[in-house]
């Protein structure tokens, strides 16, 4: 058997034959192992059943992909917006800016609401106030469900948990606990239903579930072929799954306990920057650099709506639903926020006010407001309501709202 | 020249596709009806659709924000 040349990161005893050789880092049943190239060969051949080789596997994979397309197409009997024809259309969205928070010294990259609805944590290129991190880019942050801690991370490849304290003089960095370790930047993090576990996604193409107390890796999720940019946990009633989206244009749904990739969707034409579950847990929306947002239904196993307009040519960086799921808020790199009617597929409002890219949009847990963070160093909190069509005759508001 | 890592990767892809091909799916019309029903059921509780009165609005202007 011939060896092929590969980049060896490590040299040492092989986990299988124990001889000292250049090692390949591979995953067997989600466990990382280091095998020498000879043992990788032997293991690969053992895994094949009678008559299987690379060519036959390729043929089977093409056949399965075709079959999947056919199965999905058979059930595609109607478009979502056609099914929603009888739904009363929404009138105008009237929003009111409630807060403009200018505390950051730099671009706002990520925000999260606390469950008590009053507090926001946000991260930026250099966090100045709550927590100082040794690295320059904090790309992800999340509130613990109890509101007593926050998790954040970014270019340091780690996710760290900081307990929050009411004592302003306390040095929070001293109490920081490193939980997750990836081999590339941390793009997103989220606590699961307790303060005890954190789910992370990374530029190294994987997602991972960690125990906060011990820092132990509980489960890893492999399936993306490029950076994973975003993740979202299913609403708790619907079980232990989460969705991730990345630079390989795919959105994957995972089982948290087994690490299995349950469903995969690949219809975007560019990087998926943001994924968010529909409030019922039966669908999720994505925002992408291809300037569209899309809705994927999990039970129909396909894309069911595209939210796009010819005039929108900049990527969508962040999406979130209102609590009934009727509205989809999406922040774009052209500094605007577009609000979409999820069922009808139409845009119902466009919001101006930011002076740079909108990097994050989050609806508060009780649904009363949404917050947008931007590279213009501000966070803006807005509330709003829809006028029914009969109301619009008595108001002089236009669709676009510029906020001072 | 060996393609062992290719075979390992290919085998994983085929196993994943077999798994995905076997899941149960419903028609889009049924899925759409359920999405719609959820929206309608929760529309009245959605403050961004119905608005909040000033007395209950947690973001009314008098409050101040402070950094934690």
TrEMBL record, chain A:
The UniProt entry annotates WD repeats at 179-220, 221-264, 265-306, 318-350, 351-381
Name this protein carries in UniProt: G protein subunit beta 5
- Chain segments annotated as coiled-coil in the UniProt record: none
For this UniProt record, give its keywords in alphabetical order, as a comma-separated list.
Repeat, WD repeat
Recall the taxonomic lineage recorded for the source organism.
Answer: Eukaryota, Metazoa, Chordata, Craniata, Vertebrata
**Which GO biological-process labels does this protein carry?**
signal transduction
- What organism is the protein native to? Electrophorus electricus (Electric eel)
| PROSITE patterns (UniProt xref) | WD_REPEATS_1 (PS00678), WD_REPEATS_2 (PS50082), WD_REPEATS_REGION (PS50294)
Query: Tell me, what's a Pfam family for it?
Result: WD40_Gbeta
From TrEMBL, chain B:
Gene Ontology biological process terms, A to Z: G protein-coupled receptor signaling pathway
Q: Which GO terms describe its cellular component?
A: heterotrimeric G-protein complex
Query: Could you tell me the keywords of this UniProt record?
Result: Cell membrane, Lipoprotein, Membrane, Methylation, Prenylation, Transducer
Q: Name one GO molecular function term.
A: G-protein beta-subunit binding
Domain G protein gamma, by residue range, is 3-68
Query: Which SUPFAM superfamilies does this entry report, sorted A to Z?
Result: Transducin (heterotrimeric G protein), gamma chain
Entry membrane topology: Lipid-anchor
Q: Where in the cell is it found?
A: Cell membrane
What's the chief localization of this chain? membrane
Q: How does it assemble?
A: G proteins are composed of 3 units; alpha, beta and gamma.
Which purpose does this protein serve, as stated in its record?
Guanine nucleotide-binding proteins (G proteins) are involved as a modulator or transducer in various transmembrane signaling systems. The beta and gamma chains are required for the GTPase activity, for replacement of GDP by GTP, and for G protein-effector interaction.
Q: Which family does it belong to?
A: Belongs to the G protein gamma family.
PANTHER family, sorted: GUANINE NUCLEOTIDE-BINDING PROTEIN GAMMA SUBUNIT (PTHR13809)
What is the protein's given name? Answer: Guanine nucleotide-binding protein subunit gamma
Give the source species.
Electrophorus electricus
Q: Lineage of this protein's species?
A: Eukaryota, Metazoa, Chordata, Craniata, Vertebrata
């Amino acid at each position: 058997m011939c060896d092929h040349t590969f980049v060896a990161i490590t040299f040492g005893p092989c986990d299988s034959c124990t001889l000292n050789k250049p090692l390949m880092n591979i995953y067997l049943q989600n466990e990382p192992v280091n095998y020498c190239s000879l043992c990788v060969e032997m293991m690969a051949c053992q895994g094949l059943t009678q008559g299987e080789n690379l060519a036959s596997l390729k043929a089977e994979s093409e056949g399965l992909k075709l079959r999947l397309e056919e199965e999905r197409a058979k059930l595609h009997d109607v478009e979502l917006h056609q099914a929603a024809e009888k739904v009363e259309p929404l009138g105008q969205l009237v929003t009111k800016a409630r807060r403009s928070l200018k505390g950051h010294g730099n671009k706002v990259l990520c925000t999260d609401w606390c469950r008590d609805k009053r507090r926001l944590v946000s991260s930026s290129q250099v966090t100045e106030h709550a927590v100082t991190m040794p690295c320059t880019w904090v790309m992800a942050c999340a509130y613990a469900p109890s509101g007593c801690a926050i998790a954040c991370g970014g270019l340091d490849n780690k996710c760290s948990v900081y307990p929050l304290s009411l004592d302003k003089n306390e040095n929070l960095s001293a109490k920081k606990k490193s939980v997750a370790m990836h081999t590339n930047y941390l793009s997103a993090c989220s606590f699961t239903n307790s303060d005890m576990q954190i789910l992370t996604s990374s530029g190294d193409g994987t997602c991972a579930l960690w125990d906060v107390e011990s820092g132990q890796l509980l489960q890893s999720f492999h399936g993306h072929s490029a950076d994973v940019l975003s993740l979202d946990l299913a609403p708790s009633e619907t079980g232990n799954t989460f969705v991730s989206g990345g630079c390989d244009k795919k959105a994957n749904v995972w089982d948290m306990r087994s690490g299995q990739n349950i469903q995969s969707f690949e219809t975007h034409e560019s990087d998926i920057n943001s994924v968010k579950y529909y409030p019922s847990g039966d669908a999720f929306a994505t925002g992408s650099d291809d300037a569209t947002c899309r809705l994927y239904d999990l039970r129909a196993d396909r894309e069911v709506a595209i939210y796009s307009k010819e005039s929108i040519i900049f990527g969508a960086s962040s999406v979130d639903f209102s609590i009934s799921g009727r509205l989809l808020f999406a922040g774009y790199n052209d500094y605007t926020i577009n609000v979409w009617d999820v069922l009808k597929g139409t845009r119902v409002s466009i919001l101006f006010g930011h002076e740079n890219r909108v990097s994050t949009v989050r609806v508060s847990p009780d649904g009363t407001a949404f917050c947008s963070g931007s590279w213009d160093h501000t966070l803006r909190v807005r509330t709003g309501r829809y006028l029914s069509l009969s109301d619009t005759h008595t108001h002089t508001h236009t669709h676009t709202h510029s906020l001072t | 020249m060996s393609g062992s890592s290719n075979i390992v990767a290919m085998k994983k892809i085929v196993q994943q596709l077999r798994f995905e091909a076997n899941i149960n799916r419903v028609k889009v019309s049924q899925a759409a009806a359920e999405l719609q029903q959820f929206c309608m059921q929760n529309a009245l509780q959605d403050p961004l659709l119905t608005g909040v009165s000033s007395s209950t609005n947690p973001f009314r202007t008098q409050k101040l924000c402070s950094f934690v």
